[in-house]
Structure formats: C-alpha cells, structure tokens
Amino acid sequence: MQITETSADGLRREYKVTVPAADIQNRVTAKLTEIGKSVRMPGFRPGKVPMPLLKQRYGQSVMGEVLEGAVNDSTAKAVEQNNLRPALQPKVEIINFADGQDLEFAVNVELLPEFEPADLSAVELDKPVVEVTDAMVDEALGRLSKGRRTTVKVEEERPAASGDILLIDFDGSVDGERRPGMKGEGYELELGSGTFIPGFEDQLVGAKPGEHKTVTVTFPAEYHAAELAGKEAVFEVDVKELRQGQDAVLDDELAKSFGFDTLDALKDAIRERMAADYGNTSRLRAKRALLDKLAELHDFEVPAGMVDIEFNQIWERLQQELKAGGGDAEDKEKDEEALKAEYRAIAVRRVRLGLLLSEIGRRNNITVTREELNRAVIEEVRRYPGQEQQVFEFFKKNPQAAEGLRAPIYEDKVVDFILGTVKVTEKPVSVEELMREPEEDEGVAAAA
C-alpha cells in the first residue's frame, strides 16, 4: 500500500492511496476460501467447492465487501501514519479500479486545529447574585395564598364594584336567536377581570343581588367564532349574589395543603427553591461572561466542515421559527445574505468555543462518568410525566441517544472547572437585572 500526500491547505489534507491489485486479490481469495468452508452446492462436499465456481457465484458480492474493507483499512492507516486528528469522518473518492488493477482513491481529511489555550489565571469575572430576602419569601407566600383563594358572600347590602364577584345566571342572543355557549347558571364573574366580552362586566358594576340586567355588547371583530365576530349580542342577566375573594390564611393548614407540616417548613422550602433557581440563573450569567472572555482571548482556525454542520442546524431552526411566525423582528428585516453571514459567525464562535472547552477538558483529564450519564437519563425521563417507562425503554434500546447527553454534561464540567480557576467576584443585583435576557447568542458546540 502506498500513501502520498497530495495537498495541504490550512486544516485540510488530501492523500492518494494505492492498494496493489495483488493485495485486493489476496483479500478476495481469503474471503472466498472462508465462504467455501461452509457453503453447500450440489455435487460437492462442504469445503470442496472449486475456487472458480465460488468466484463465479460469490465473486461480485465479495469484491464489494473487500473494496469497502480495503478503503476503510487504508484510510485508517493513512490517518495513523501521518498522526492526524480528523475533525470529521474522512471523505473518500475512488480514482481508479478495475478487476486485476490497483485500487486508487483519494482521502480528504479536515483536521482539528492545534492551539494553546490562553492562561486563564488572570481572568476576572463578575457573577451576578441575588439574595433571597424575607420579603421575597413573603411575596411568594402571598401568591400561593391567592392561588388557594375562595369566595365569601357579602352580607352588606351594597352595589357591586370592580374587583367584586357576582354570582349570575345569563342567557344571550344574537339577532334574537339563542346561540350555544351563551347561557350559564351559577357563574362566578369577577368584575374587571376581562373574562367576558369587552363591556359586559362594566355594565354590571353597580348591580345588586336580586336585580335583573339587560347587557348589550358587541363581539370583537377578531373573535374566534367567525359567525359571531362583530355581531351585537344581548344578554339577560340575573344577579343572584354578591361575593368577595378571600385569600387563604397563611398558617400551618395552608402549608399542609402543599405537603409541609408547618408554615415555617413551607417558607424554608420556598427560600431554598428560590435560591436554587436564582443560583442556576446566576451560574448561566457567569458562564456567558466566561464564554465571552474565552472568545475574546482565542482566535484560531476552525474546521470549515464543523462550521457548516453547526450553521445548517442554526439556519434550519431559524427558518422553522420564522415560518411559524416567531423569530427576532430584526432578523425579518435583514436580507438573507446578511443574515447568513451573521449566523455563520455565531456558528464559528460556537465551534471554536466547543473545541477550546474540549481541549481544556482533555488536558485536565475531565471525563463524564457512567453514573453521571445515568443520572442525566433519569432526569430526562422525569421530563415526561406519565410516559416514564416508554422513555426509559427508548434510552435502553438506543444507547446512542443516552450518549447524546454526554456533551452538555462534559461542557458543564469543563465550565465549572474553569470558573474554579479564574477569579470570580460576586456582584449583588436585583431580580430584574438577573433575569434580564442577554441579547446575543451564547451557544457552544462542545465535543466530549
């Protein structure tokens, strides 16, 4: 076998590989001999079928298998002999082959870049943090209390005001005709809630229990039921009772309804949950700052093939968002070429950061353990309540799917390692500042 480098341009290498015809023939003969040991043909004992007959019967299929094996083996040899680190699967192009002739093919390889990670010991980052205060816990408790709100009858004789709740019976018509869905009995309507058609609730402000009201409204032009859109409707309304909302009492009984023994235990759980949520967001902000700094400190060539794959994934998602009516408003105003250039730059950043994190992880012996991967699978299973068994079986039957969870775990471990190396200063911020979404992309395409 002869391997000759024919081109070297940046991270791209091309080799011409020649496999002698004799080697190909030896492989074919060996394969046919192996087949002949077990094949049964009329008139011949097992293992006694003549080679010419074997070649006639199986030669074509064996040749295809042999060529594939020869190409794979030779490609691997070319990579090994030249100490190459392919970024992607090498591309093979057959140059020449005919029965009895040498096999010639070209191998195109795109390499991983060789680079030296910057010294990060002098890097300084701000990490936004939020302190969970008693007031924040009390506010969260208040939301829980409102979520368990009940209504009580107002004994005082007075007209209904905005915020009050009326218990009503109603029956509506359009053009004098009763329509389905326009009648109700014993309905609790909070005035000012915007639950009913615009204008309906306003006309019941001032009503008293026992009164009958005729309410005339117009359905909005964009109403979901096209046959009612823009039509005038008349509702006959009987006010049965005036009620007020009453938040649940903040006590141990409320806590028990959420699965806690005491109100203090519920408060502690709320505090811990808020601290964990804000802590996760804080880490994400610190990670973004770190990635921005890493991108600033490194500018090495990246494999074009990896960039193409990353860009195509980004572009496909963007097109799906735009087709669904989503996407960034600014993106919709840009011409396609400018938009592609912008997102290709994002793809380059992602690939470069991914390679950098992989290299830092490799140099510091960072790996993903089987236990960590199993935990990730369990977490993924929990994301599908009621379908846990099916999802678990999917991962069990498709090990490659579980392996797909390895990259984000690896990336997080490397990021945490770097955050433990650089100088991180915690910066107290408000909840609004912490939760404010960053404007730019922060993705990484890391390889474990």
Please supply descriptive tags for the structure shown above.
Trig_fac; four-stranded antiparallel β-sheet; cell cycle; Trigger factor, domain 2; alpha+beta; 3 domains; cytoplasm; Alpha-Beta Plaits; 448 residues; Chitinase A, domain 3; isomerase; five-stranded antiparallel β-sheet; 21% strand
β-strand number:
11
Text of the CATH class of the largest domain? Mainly Alpha
The CATH superfamily of the largest domain bears the name Trigger factor, C-terminal domain
Q: Helix segment count?
A: 13
- Rg calc: 35 Å
Distance between the termini: 34 Å
Mean pLDDT: 90
Shape: elongated
* Class by alpha and beta content: alpha+beta
- What's the multimeric state? single chain
Q: Strand portion, in percent?
A: 15-25%
Low-confidence stretches: none
Question: Any idea what the CATH architecture of the largest domain is?
Answer: Orthogonal Bundle
Largest sheet, in brief, is: 5 strands, antiparallel
Count the domains.
3
Estimated helix fraction: 40-55%
Following the backbone from N to C, one meets helices and strands in this order, namely EEHHEEEHEEEEEHHHHHHHHHEH
CATH topology of the largest domain: Trigger factor, domain 2
